[in-house]
């Protein structure tokens, strides 16, 4: 049975695929129109830029959920389990703080963007800030859920440096 997070992930993947398809069609169509007919789609660049910003942040959210962001776990891998766990807790708290700053800044930019319009289509520039705001909330919830698992001692917790993490096994205590 699929959980809510899994369903939201599937919806996000479909939205990202649709946005990428629209971007490709708009940019390709614009290139063909410019070179073949000396015209173009005026809004293509603006729509593509907005979709690209959303793609980046939605992709970052999915990458975080699957622990696919770049990380250097060389030091943590050499630590005993309790020290790795403590480092993970500190790292998660720092990530939550950074995400809070990002959410707060995005919210301020979102409010400012409600008063500012895009050049061609005249949509609120808040759409750009929203691309950071909503995914940052999703990332904070993801980090918070893993922090809860770490503190609760759940076997599903992702602790950097765990030698068995690549194979999906439970953390090894030393």
Quick gist of this model?
With 174 residues, this protein is an all-alpha fold.
Based on Cα principal axes, name the global outline.
elongated
Helix content: 55-70%
Number of strands: 0
Largest sheet: none
Which percent range describes the beta-strand content?
under 5%
Order of helices and strands: HHHHH
Helix-and-strand structural type: mainly alpha
What gap, in angstroms, lies between the N and C termini?
35 Å
Rg over alpha carbons: 21 Å
Domain tally: 1
Unreliable runs? 167-172
Mean pLDDT: 89
Helical stretch tally: 5
GO molecular function, one term: transmembrane transporter activity
Function: Part of the tripartite ATP-independent periplasmic (TRAP) transport system.
GO biological process, one term: C4-dicarboxylate transport
Protein name: TRAP transporter small permease protein
Structure, described:
By secondary structure, the protein is mostly helical. The chain has one domain (4-167). Helix content is 69%, strand content 0%. The protein contains five helices and no strands. It has helices spanning 4-37, 44-65, 74-77, 81-113, 126-152. The two termini are 35 Å apart.
List keywords for this structure.
DctQ; transmembrane helix; mainly alpha; TRAP transporter small permease protein; TRAP_DctQ; about 170 residues
Could you give the topology of this structure?
Blueprint (H helix, E strand, L loop, with lengths): L3 H34 L6 H22 L8 H4 L3 H33 L12 H27 L22
Helix pairs in contact: 1-2, 2-5, 4-5
Protein name: TRAP transporter small permease protein
GO molecular function: transmembrane transporter activity
Subcellular location: Cell inner membrane
């Amino acid at each position: 049975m699929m959980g809510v997070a899994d369903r939201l992930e599937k919806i996000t993947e479909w939205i990202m695929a649709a946005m990428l398809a629209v971007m490709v069609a708009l940019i390709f169509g614009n290139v063909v129109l410019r070179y073949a007919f000396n015209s173009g789609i005026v809004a293509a660049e603006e729509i593509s830029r907005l979709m690209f910003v959303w793609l980046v942040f939605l992709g970052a959210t999915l990458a975080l959920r699957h622990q696919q962001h770049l990380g250097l776990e060389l030091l943590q891998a050499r630590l005993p389990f309790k020290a790795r766990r403590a480092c993970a807790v500190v790292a998660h708290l720092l990530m939550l703080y950074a995400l809070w700053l990002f959410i707060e800044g995005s919210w301020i930019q979102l409010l400012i963007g409600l008063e500012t319009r895009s050049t061609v289509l005249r949509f609120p520039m808040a759409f750009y800030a929203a691309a950071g705001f909503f995914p940052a909330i999703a990332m904070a919830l993801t980090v918070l859920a893993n922090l809860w698992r770490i503190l609760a001692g759940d076997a599903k917790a992702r602790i950097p440096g765990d030698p068995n993490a690549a194979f999906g096994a439970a953390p090894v205590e030393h």
